[in-house]
Amino acid sequence: MPVYQTELGWVLETNTTAYAFGLNQAGLLVHRYWGARLPRHEDYPPATDAKGWASFNNAAQLTQEEYPGYEDMKFVDACIQVIFADGVRGTVLRYASFDLDEGALPELRIHLRDTAYPLQVTLHYRVHADYDLIERWATVANQGETPITIERIDSAQWHFPVAESYRLTHVTGRWLDEMHLRREVLQPGRKVLESRRLTTSHHHNPWFALDRGGSCEDAGAVWFGVLAWSGNWKLSADINDFGATRINVGVNDWDFAWRLNPGDTFSTPSSFGGYTEQGFGGASRLLHDFIRDTIIPHGHALHKVLYNSWEATTFNVDEASQAELAELAAEMGIELFVMDDGWFHGRDDDTAGLGDWWPDERKFPNGLKNLIGRVNGLGMDFGLWIEPEMVNPNSELYRAHPDWVIHFPTRTRTTGRDQLILNFARTDVQEYIIGQIDRLLSENNIVFIKWDMNRNVSEPGWSDAPGDPRELWVRYVQGLYHVWGTLRERHPEVIWQSCSGGGGRADLGILRLADQVWISDNTEPSARLAIQEGYTNIFPANTMEAWVTDMGPDYLPLAFRFHVSMCGSLGVGGHLVHWGTERRAEAARWIALYKELRPVVQYGDLYRLRSPQEHAYSAVQYMSKDRTEGVLFAFRTHLPPPANTPPLYLRGLDPDASYEIEGMLGARSGLAWMRTGLYLELKDFESTVRRIRRV
Ligand code: GLA
What we know:
Layout: E1 3-6, E2 9-13, E3 17-23, E4 29-36, H1 59-62, E5 80-83, E6 93-101, E7 107-114, E8 119-128, E9 133-142, E10 148-160, E11 167-174, E12 177-185, E13 189-194, E14 207-211, E15 222-227, E16 233-239, E17 245-251, E18 258-260, E19 265-267, E20 271-276, H2 279-295, E21 306-308, H3 310-313, H4 319-331, E22 336-339, H5 369-377, E23 381-386, E24 390-391, H6 396-400, E25 420-421, H7 427-443, E26 448-451, H8 472-490, E27 495-498, E28 516-518, H9 525-536, E29 544-548, H10 558-566, E30 569-572, H11 576-603, E31 605-610, E32 617-623, E33 629-636, E34 658-661, E35 668-669, H12 670-676, E36 686-694
C-alpha cells in the first residue's frame, strides 16, 4: 500500500523511496523522513518535538514542519502568509483531519485549520510510485464572511536529512545561452532562485537537485524536484545554523497578492519531489519517464522530422519562397514543414503585425490553403508559428484595444522587440485569442503550432482587476493555460511547441499543453551541446526540438551539426536552397538514419557519459527500455594536442548479454563495455554516431 497510517503518522511509499510525516507532541505536523524505502513500518522515525535551547532559538525555529504558518518565533519562511480583514497577519495552522483517495494514483489530503480564523489549508500528497516521485500542492479556503488577502503561498517545503553539507545543482543562463549547470555547496543563509519575468525564464528553471557532495551522474543519493508552473516562481534553499536544510518552492511572493473572497479557494501549482541513489542521471531518467508517461499530451507519439523556415527566410515569407523550401525539404525526407514568423497581416519585420492573426494579403493572396495544399501534396504535414500573447502597437488589434495590454495608465508602456503583452488575465482577451487561433486551425490543415513569447513583462498593471491587481502574475498564467487548453481540446490532433525566444518557458506546467520545447535560439552546434545537456537534466529528449542550421563557423561539418540535433527531436532550419545538392543529399542520409534511431532517442533511457559543459570530448547514450538496442553519440570540439580521448564507459546495458557496437571489433558482454569502455578517435570538431545492438 503506497500510503498508510500508523500511530506515528503517515508514510508515502514509492517503488524505492519513502516520505513520512506525522504529528509531534506539540500537535504540529512535522517531517519525519525522506529517502530510501525502509523494510518495516516501524523503521520510519517518529515525529519529534524540537528542543529550543535559548530565547533566541526556541523550538518553533528548529521544528521541521511540513507547512509552517506565520507564528511563534520561527524566523523561517512561512509557507503561507495572509492578512485577515481585521489586519491580523499571523497564520496559526493546526491539524484538523485527513482523507485518503486510494485510486491508481493515491492522494492523501491533510486538512489544517487556523486556530482563530475561518481559514482552511489542505495539503495534498500524491504518490507517483513508479517514478519515485511525491507530488505536493496546497489548497486554501476562506470559510468566513470577510475577504482574506494571501501574500505568500508555497506549494511545499521540502526537508532533507540533517547532514554536514549539501550541494545544490541548478541551471542558469540567458537568452541564447540557457541551461548551464551550476553546483554549489549551500552555506548558512538562503540561496534564492526565481523568476520575476511573468514566464519561467531563460535565467533559471524551477528545478533542483540536492546531494551531499559525493554524488555523480551514475551513483549517489540525490533529492530533486520541479515546480509545474509557467509564471513567476521562487525556490529558496535554506540551511540553518543547526544543520537543517529545507527548500521552499512555489509561486513567487514578490509583488504577489491574492484576494480570497468568502467561499473562495486558491490552489497552488504542484511541486514534485523525488529521491534516488542512482545519481543525477538516475534522477533525470525518473523525470524523463514521468514527463513522457504522464505530463505531455501526446504520450509516446514519435515526433516527425521537421523543417522550420525561420533562420532561412526570417520575415520574408510568401507562397513561392516557402514552396521552394518545402520541395527541397520533402526530397530530403522531412515530414513536417513549419512556416515561422512573417506570414500574418502587416508582418514585414518585428515592428508590426502581432495580434492580427490572419494571413498577410500581399504575401498570401489566396490565404494559407494553397501553400498548405502544396506541402501536403509533397507528403508533408504543415505547421505554423504564432505568438498569441503579444501585440505590436502597430497592429489593428492594438488600435482597436489599446487597454488590453499589461500596463499602468500613467506610465510609459515599455516595449520589448517593439511589442507589448496582452493581458491574458482578462477574459475578453482570452476569448478573442481563442477565437482567432481556433479559426486559423479550423480553416486550415495545420497539425503543428509553435507558440512563441518573445519578451518579459514591464509595468505589470491591471487597472480594472476584479481583485487585487497583483493577482495578475498568477491569473495571467491561468489565462494562458485556459486559452491553450481550450485550443488543445478543440484541436486534439495538433502538436504544440512551447517557445519563448528559445528556452524561456520550459517547465512541467507548459508541458501539460505542449509536447515539445524550442530550447534555445542558439543553434550553433557546439553551444547547443551544453544547452542540451542542461536541458536533459530535467526534460526528456523527445521534448527537445533541435534544428540543424547554418549558424556557427563553416568548419563545423554537417555531420557534427546533425549528430547534435539527432540527440533530441530532429529538425532542420538551414537555408536549403543555399545548401546545394550534395549537402542536401548528405542531410537526407542523416535524416534516414535518424528515423531508424528515433524510437530509442525519443523514448529510451538517456545516459550522459561525458559532460560537454566540462569537457571538449563529450558523449551521450540512449538505450531502449528492453536494453536490446541503443545509440551512442560522441563529440569533440577543440582539444589542444596531445589529445588523449579517454574511454567511454557505456551505461544501461544488460551485464550478461552480448553487445556489438558499430565500428568496434567483436561482441562483448554488457558488463565489459560498461567497465572497460571503448576508445574512439575523433579529430577537432568531429563527431560520431554508433549503434549498439544486443546479439
Ligand atoms: C523567437 C523564436 C525564433 C523565431 C523568432 C521569430 O526568437 O525563438 O525561433 O521563431 O522568434 O520571430
